[in-house]
Amino acid sequence: xxxxxxxxxxxxxxxxxxxxxxxxxxxxxxxxxxxxxxxxxxxxxxxxxxxxxxxxxxxxxxxxxxxxxxxxxxxxxxxxxxxxxxxxxxxxxxxxxxxxxxxxxxxxxxxxxxxxxxxxxxxxxxxxxxxxxxxxxxxxxxxxxxxxxxxxxxxxxxxxxxxxxxxxxxxxxxxxxxxxxxxxxxxxxxxxxxxxxxxxxxxxxxxxxxxxxxxxxxxxxxxxxxxxxxxxxxxxxxxxxxxxxxxxxxxxxxxxxxxxxxxxxxxxxxxxxxx
Amino acid sequence: xxxxxxxxxxxxxxxxxxxxxxxxxxxxxxxxxxxxxxxxxxxxxxxxxxxxxxxxxxxxxxxxxxxxxxxxxxxxxxxxxxxxxxxxxxxxxxxxxxxxxxxxxxxxxxxxxxxxxxxxxxxxxxxxxxxxxxxxxxxxxxxxxxxxxxxxxxxxxxxxxxxxxxxxxxxxxxxxxxxxxxxxxxxxxxxxxxxxxxxxxxxxxxxxxxxxxxxxxxxxxxxxxxxxxxxxxxxxxxxxxxxxxxxxxxxxxxxxxxxxxxxxxxxxxxxxxxxxxxxxxxxxxxxxxxxxxxxxxxxxxxxxxxxxxxxxxxxxxxxxxxxxxxxxxxxxxxxxxxxxxxxxxxxxxxxxxxxxxxxxxxxxxxxxxxxxxxxxxxxxxxxxxxxxxxxxxxxxxxxxxxxxxxxxxxxxxxxxxxxxxxxxxxxxxxx
Lengths: 275, 431
Hints:
The complex is a heterodimer of chains A (275) and B (431). With 275 residues, chain A is an alpha/beta fold. Helix content of chain A is 27%, strand content 25%. Chain A has 6 helices and 14 strands. The termini of chain A are far apart. Chain B contains 17 helices and 19 strands. The interface between A and B is medium-sized, with 8 and 16 residues.
């Protein structure tokens, strides 16, 4: 047991960073411009962020406190912030400003960190491991860097013990558990829990309104040179679409025992399975 | 913290939205909860709405109500495998004033009415299925979605539709029995507006409403319907659940045969089935009604069995909306009388009576039972078509007078004159 465990439990202040993304299974790539076709595609909370939110809500149920949701993006993100509140978050904050358009992960982490500063003290910042629409996994660690707090990444289990957080991450041949002092940043593994459905009480709170706060770049005193396209060092040099090779497709219709033997034979012949 | 309202209405169909709209107007803080993602998405009906309650509910309804066509043509027909004997009635007057009726699509109509309730101040929440009533020491205190998700209210208005799950859980009604319900199926068949107008002899905004007996339901108790929408036709069946189960017949097979009937095919040729839906239909009207009022709870619409099927008109949506209005009136009266006790809420029945919901239901109390006479759906359609064939076939072998032909047909159909006479008298009485 670590120091502080067993003492009087105090509520946790948890900030969950979420992004709204197009539903992955409904996305396609424009063959000409080679960019994602986003128009008309329904949105959702980035699935790993849903796991982070679920983690936060469970911690709150256990320890008390509050869950704040933070996001950066266009006002259409309200849809996801409302869903997060309907799921049980206490309040939500959206940083929305044209000047932030085109931000890559560097200004995004910077901007979110400034917003977290503005929110005051916190115990935990939870992020999804990465987003499904860009898959960098940079933002969580970037926030930890800006805030200068410890981080544990890719956690599938998060436990708060006294004033410390313990995160378990799956690695190739097992699991490892790390522990660090609060406040900390933890990024959460995709699929590590089952995000709850919005509740009636939560949806009523959304309808009653007043739980989403909007901030502009000016509200956060952001340096114009450090945000948006100007503040983004990433250069997209080239985009290629990969043509999937046609598969031959063969069905082995023999008795199962025979079919398996024939299948193995064929896979060995093609070098898929080593002899 | 538990959220609370003066009233919670469960279900944003015609009954629920009408109740929520009227409650909100009367100053009740009102929550309207719908299980589908949007009002109307999970709802189903034949296709026609009698407009009269809208004159009170949304006085300027004609301005933006998403109606498909005003019904100006009514029809009924008996079918055998390949023949039909029908009667149509055209009159601009059936589409006029308070007796107007129109065809509609529920996804649009229900969404429209729910919006009116919202505009009146009710809070609409969708995508939530209410699992149970919150009951404590014999009275309803709100709704339960799951044990950690309860919302409190002085009054819960149940407008959950035909399955009546909450009504049963609240102990206001016993479990549904097969004889109390029919199964409704409906196909929406897309056709160009001009094609519909040409085939049904309608002008631009006019619509037709047809009912079918006999082969339509495969001789089982029930019948078929056809309504013209703007650019589609609703074709469907309502068939006794008891008969389907007993005869082990799948209703979709009946529906396919009905659609393929030559008389129907002529009307629908070239159309594309774009939607298929099915739903329970409360069948026994006044004979299956639950307790309509309890401690802190009222039951409206299909959940209360407010449906009239007398063989030539099917009414549900108008009764549902009216019962919603009456529920709100009862709530208002109960509030003035000191609270939402069962005793105070019992005025609901009186309001249902002054609004002719209960009176109409009671008037046709016997119709459902009469309609349960299997001869109506099998023997008589055949007989009528047989007689018509005898009357109209001229082949030089000599003709009898019509009455003699009819009696001969009846004899061949295995019906005694007495049985026929008895059915005729019963029919006339119950309708």
